[in-house]
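Extended Data, panel c. Modelled sequence:
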Amino acid sequence: MLLPIMGQTLHVRRTRNDPVTFNSRFVEFRQTFWYLDIPLHPEYHTPLLGELGTSFWVEFRAQDGALYSFPTHLLSIESIPLQVWQIQGPTHSEVLREQRRDFFRVPASFPVKLEYDNETHKFQVDVMSKDISGGGIAIIIPKSVLIHPGSVVRVRFTLPNLNFAVDTLCIVIRVGPANDYAYRIASLEFTDFKESIRQKIIQFTFWRQRYTQE
């Protein structure tokens, strides 16, 4: 069965579709057990907490570029010599292979209307984009905008050179720390998305790349 190489980065999710991933590293393989570094949140560097028997999903990318994932559970916490997780290794039938595309990201600054809500209110705010790809967009938000990883927001914007309007839901992947001016970078992943709209955005990224190189 295909294994990651020693030291390779792994991503751990609480559930298969959880948008929040924790970073880990493949340490060792023994019989049917895997050992990996205790997973840490990529932004806050806090550990993923779980009791023995807790279920979660592990992902890794193979040399052919495909994404492999499988369900497993925590067996124990060992010291070899640093603390690591011992997890149940997957059977061949449990491993899922997904040919996930990686989209080219380009810097781009244009107005974006962001909609989000909390338990009692819905908010609309005008912000600016930082970069964009066929998979998502990064926006610059003031400190007053309270969105968090895992939440769902709506964005509306017009691709500048195509005059093409985009209106779509997004999952918040991460929100960076505030800079000296109290602004943060929020990374959003497009969801509920028609492929024809994605192709327009990809067309824009190619145009933008050529434009910045001229």
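The domain at 9-98 is CATH 2.30.110.10 (Pnp Oxidase; Chain A). This feature is highlighted in the accompanying rendering.
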